[in-house]
Amino acid sequence: MRYFFILGTNPTLSIAEILAVFPGENYELINKDVFLLDTEEINAQEMIKKLGGTIKIGKIEKKIENKKEQIAEAVSERVKEVEGKFNFGISYYGEGKYDTKPLGMEAKNKLKSMNINSRFVTSREKTLSSVVVKQNKLTKPGEGSEFVLIKSPLKIPLNSPLAKGAIGEGGGKEFLFGRTLAVQPFKELSFRDYGRPARDDFSGMLPPKLAQIMINLATAGTGHAPFLLDPFCGSGTILSEAMLMGYKNLIGSDLSGKAVEDTKKNLEWIKTNYQLPITNDRLYNVSATEISKVVKPNSIDAIATEPFLGPQRGKIDFIKIKQELEKLYSDSLREFYKILKPKGRVVMIFPFFTAPLVNSPLKGGIGTKQYVTNLDPNLNGFKIVNPIPEDLRKNKILKLTERGTIIYGREGQKVWREIVVLKK
Prior knowledge:
alpha/beta; 424 residues; VC0802-like; 2 domains; 10 helices
């Protein structure tokens, strides 16, 4: 079956995660918002809870001409067993502006001729947000649907498995027509981010969505219920999200006793609120640079962690912090190599300092502006894995560093995150 994934604000990271979860499948990057995947039938409602970088998941149903009569017909064909008023919306994903209102009114009239009372849900944007879709019940069978029109400015190669019945080589006169099956659970994510009993806003909080992405990248290809370790567990975001994603063998550690206690409180809170089954989770008050004292050699399948990234506020001596963090990261990676199984992965966040270069001996950059460079610790036997397949790396939509890592952040932050995937 052919599914569409509406990508988050960092398409590179979103695609890396999808391909980690669905290895070996046929895929196509349509535009900066849409990624297509041919795979076996999936439970979209469950899958989207585990994909931190995906906003919507839906199914491609047909190819359709850019004519409102045909689009109205396609909408009416998919309205079945309606009880009461049927809500529907139309989102357009493609280059340029596109007015969906005439399409919606045509579809509404078509439904009226079928004796179906309907309401056309609109937005000021050309796409409906996850909030609008959720609040108007547009993914509930019999109550509502969001229909999606996808137009590509790109040409799909004729030998691509997705070319059959897709946009074709013209890439403009036709749409892919699909229906949204699930949207990102924004309320749950916010609840877990801000509702947990133990938070440390001063040290910084890893967003639950990013934690999910890191877990999926770290466990790619494990094929079983792996032992997952977070050796800088902080307040337990990675372990909490792993628990919700079904991982049952979890280990966390931190040099800070308060962090370990915070993690313990938050894990209990997650278990209680989500009524999770008993898991095998262990917590240690120990430095990551000594983790092999409490964890057996070659016993861990995957490590996902965000270490201390340096100070986030005030005047920062970037050169001094860089030296201190490189030593911490180098010593930690030496320990990780001891306890990780052969071919095991580490997904680790390095800080990427975004101070303008002014007479600095450091060199680096992102986008069109210059910034202080990323860290360069001793990898101690690990190799950096580029999580984007080679055939996509030259695509201008995707952004990778020279060493094959992904930068995550927003304008105005002093410290961005560099997502580094390492393999033993």
